[in-house]
Amino acid sequence: MTFSAPCVSFQHTCVIVLSPDSVIQYPAMVHDLSSTYSPSSYMLVVVSSGYFIADAADIIFSGYAKASWEFLLHHVLVLWCFLFSVFTRRYVAGAVVALFVEVNSVFLHTRLLLNLAKVSHTSLILKANKALNFLTYVMFRLGAQFYITWFLIYHYSSLDFAFYFLTTMMLMNIMILIYFYRLIRSDLLTRQRAQNGVCKLALD
Questions:
Q1: Is 118 left (phi over 0), alpha (psi -120 to 50) or beta?
Q2: Which of 55, 148, 152, 180 has the fewest CB atoms below 10 angstroms from its CB?
Q3: pLDDT (tens digit per residue) in 3-53
């Protein structure tokens, strides 16, 4: 694997990470995910939609569709919501809040780039990135997903197309919980097993 694909994803992340700033400038979006938005937040959704289309096309035409089916499924789930928002200008605020996950993606992509660069697992920068990756996963990825899910459930009777978006969010929630388990297993449980092994050797 080369650095090109992770770097493109990282660049997209650095742009879309402006989504919290859009909400700070127009806080009404947090309270009404279905109908409020600003011109800058709408453009964020447009740019992000373009990235997901390009990335999905790259995966398919480069021959990695079978190996990367999880990424393709994720992109499809995102796109059928984002493109709906782009063409109808509905739920733009919900899409912007969903882009909060890109704060975590900064550290997720940095982790991948560090691994590709063969940075030592004992490196301080890798350990710091793992800690920030875990923290932002909980705050921005799980937090954003579950807030949108709560909003759709709480306002279900008064929202148009609520079933359409809630079904998508439930599928996405299952995916991010699976990824969260993998993250815990790779970054926390593996380290714990290694520490237990060292202790066992010391006792022996």
A1: left
A2: 180
A3: 445 555 655 565 566 667 678 788 888 899 999 998 888 988 998 898 888
Inter-residue contact 79 to 52 (CB < 8 Å): yes
Q: How far apart are CA 27 and CA 45, in angstroms?
A: 17
User: What are the sequence ranges of the domains in the chain?
Assistant: 4-203
Q: 111: which 2 tokens? A: 């982790």
pTM over 0.85, yes/no: no
Residue 66: strand, helix, or coil? coil
User: What is the model's pLDDT at position 198?
Assistant: 36
Sorted by sequence, the CB contacts under 8 Å of residue 29 that are 6+ apart come out as 22, 23, 36, 37, 38, 41, 92, 93, 96, 97
Which segments in the chain show pLDDT lower than 70? 1-19, 21, 190-204
Q: Is 92 left (phi over 0), alpha (psi -120 to 50) or beta?
A: alpha
